[in-house]
Design brief:
The structure is a homodimer.
Chain A: E1 13-15, E2 20-22, H1 24-41, E3 50-54, H2 59-70, E4 74-81, H3 87-101, E5 107-110, H4 118-125, H5 129-147, E6 152-154, H6 159-171, H7 175-180, E7 184-185, E8 194-196, H8 204-213, H9 230-244, H10 248-257, H11 278-287, E9 296-297, E10 304-305, H12 311-331
Parallel strand pairs in A: 3-4, 3-6, 4-5, 6-8
Antiparallel strand pairs in A: 1-2, 7-8, 9-10
């Protein structure tokens, strides 16, 4: 089969959801255009932005960094070493190698040094690993961005991630989560930096193809802690539907983002003045810290929070207490 | 494992979505209660109703008829012979046998006699078989009910059917279809009889178990025309999610039916006065006939329609024309 764009070279990537097949060169053009269209449609970035790209070592975040560099954005990479034996070392290696290939040195946060390596923190706090990981990442993404004077934080969530999350939220009618879900979370007073997901229009398969054809070396293993994640169940269900009805995912997500969609409004506060989604979203995100009322700063670390101490500092304290309890027990 | 209800007999039906397992006798109690609760919660039926039960010969509709008879409702069965070779004969046989076992004789409509056997009608009208079948069934359900002075039409759609339809409507954000989807479609002027789905709270597995344990003999084969039906793709996707997370389906559907769900309102007409769902639903159903404005009666058959001729009579006319064209061609 010939490339549908240049009609000369052999097609290397088949994309049924776009009724297209491309040669590598034309696929790069297509993929970059999908990402920049996604950025433009949802006004995620402006040319003057200083972008902090959160890189895990997986394909999505490295491809995101690659596309943003090529598109001329000023970027730095942030790698958070989760302290997961083996997996964290292997992913850090990939991040450092990719960064070096682009003449970059990523910012690295070591959760072991910060006192909250994920496996131990989850045990100590008696929480799900994925939940602890979310709290910790959210915290450092924002803190590193605010301290480093970045104007925006970018993560590598793709269309498969976003639609899996959307399906889960719809199956349980989590109205607050639905109002919060958006490729753009605007910044807010109290040091909350804007957060964007520039890959929202491209699928996992497309991102993987881009990474492969570009020769980006990434970790292919899933995080060993996420094996039971429910999001994988939703992702698989949507994959089966997409296989039978190509294009379903993008229709599903774009229809959800449509400003006329009444689910973009928060249940309690839905008024005509309520912006469709994004503004309400960040307020909800901060509210997810666990408190209500007026935003203030964490007495421990100064981060934006609705409670006296932010959720990260509360987690850290639980880990510290569990450790000293263990130390006491052992020394007895 | 012992029955979770009587704690004496061995459990025969395992229901992870209800964290329960029942012996046959207790499962009957459970199942009937689920159906009557579904009827009560959505006010589907009143004791005085004369119910026309649409029976296909499959498990759902025969189980529905069985439960309604046992619950003391005045019922008659309506069987529509679709004119599908082999399949129609086998299903009619099951309907007649079941009806006889309850001392009943079902009303039978033969589509071949009516001039619209599904396979030929679909070919002549160049439409999907499932689409033609929907039009024809909707027409006869209502006509037989209106002529026979029935107060309500009941169909055997179960929770799996309704959630598959809901998922499809959400994946494509079909707002009009979403507003229309409800276990209750109230009657309306112009001879539109109320339509209800009393099995909306019970799953396919539960219905099959009830049919099996009650010794109801039903056709197990799927309609040969529906093999590619997209609803099967959605059903399968939801089954996989339900297997991993029992109870997802009922949470999904009940959350959708919640009157506070903004999707229960029609997009164009959403106002605070708009009833959540049911009322808007029937208007949309009639509008689906293909016209807009004020309801009137079909010039051909007198059925309620928004166009001069109802969609059934238009279909019949297309079949008639295609037939006479063929006859002319052959005789030449």
């Amino acid at each position: 089969m010939k490339c549908k764009r240049c009609r000369r070279a052999d097609a290397a990537v088949d994309l049924p959801s776009h009724h297209a097949a491309f040669c590598p060169a034309c696929f790069f053009v297509f993929f970059r255009r999908q990402v920049t269209e996604g950025i433009r449609k949802q006004r995620l970035l402006v040319p003057e932005d200083r972008v902090l790209v959160c890189v895990s070592g997986g394909k999505d975040s490295l491809v995101l960094w690659d596309v943003l560099i090529d598109a001329g954005y000023e970027t730095e990479g942030l790698y958070i070493d989760l302290g997961i034996e083996g997996y964290s070392d292997r992913s850090k290696e990939k991040v450092l190698a990719y960064a070096a290939s682009r003449g970059k040195t990523p910012i690295v946060v070591e959760l072991a040094t910060e006192g909250v390596p994920i496996p131990e923190a989850a045990r100590c706090a008696r929480m799900q690993e994925c939940s602890v990981c979310g709290t910790v990442k959210r915290y450092f993404f924002n803190r590193v961005a605010a301290e480093g004077k970045f104007t925006v934080v970018a993560t590598g969530h793709n269309l498969d991630d976003e639609t899996a999350r959307l399906l889960g939220n719809l199956l349980h009618w989590q109205r607050d989560h639905l109002a919060r879900q958006h490729p753009l979370l605007p910044g807010a007073d109290g040091g909350l930096v804007r957060k964007v997901k520039p890959l929202w229009r491209v699928s996992e398969v497309e991102t993987a193809a881009y990474g492969f054809l570009k020769g980006i070396d990434y970790v292919t293993e899933e995080c060993p802690m996420s094996e039971d994640a429910t999001s994988l169940v939703y992702k698989e269900a949507l994959s089966r539907i997409e296989d039978r009805m190509p294009g379903t995912r993008i229709v599903f997500y774009q229809g959800f983002l449509d400003p006329s969609n009444p689910l973009r409004k928060r249940p309690e506060t839905a008024t005509p003045e309520d912006a469709p989604g994004a503004d309400a979203a960040h307020r909800t995100e901060v509210a997810a810290e666990g408190g209500e009322g007026t935003a203030r700063t964490c007495v421990e670390c100064g981060a934006a929070t609705f409670t006296e101490t932010c959720s990260f500092c509360r987690l850290k304290e639980r880990v510290r207490k569990a450790r000293s309890l263990r130390a006491t027990t052992v020394s007895r």
